[in-house]
Design a protein that fits this description.
The chain is an all-alpha fold. The chain has helices at residues 4-13, 18-24, 29-37, 44-54, 58-62. It is globular and about 30 Å long.
């Protein structure tokens, strides 16, 4: 199961609203809110966008690692 708290923590660390992040993902604030509270799973393409935007790894967002650094390409 995804560590949904990481989505909110990453967003709040950048002082962003849900609406701003939703715009980055080309979705609605309501849809993004469902990702954050765990009602809906975030699609892989949107997960990749967030990892790039926050300069972290998808594994960090998913709670598979506590290392925030992105992987080398």
């Amino acid at each position: 199961m995804m560590n949904i708290h990481r989505l909110k923590d990453l967003r709040e660390d950048k002082d962003l609203s849900q609406a701003k992040v939703a715009k980055i993902l080309n979705t609605t604030q309501q849809q993004y809110s469902k990702y954050e509270i765990g009602i809906r799973l975030i699609p892989i393409d949107k997960l990749n966008i967030l990892a790039d935007f926050y300069k972290t790894s998808t594994d960090y967002i998913l709670g598979r690692t506590n290392n925030k650094k992105p992987y080398e390409k």
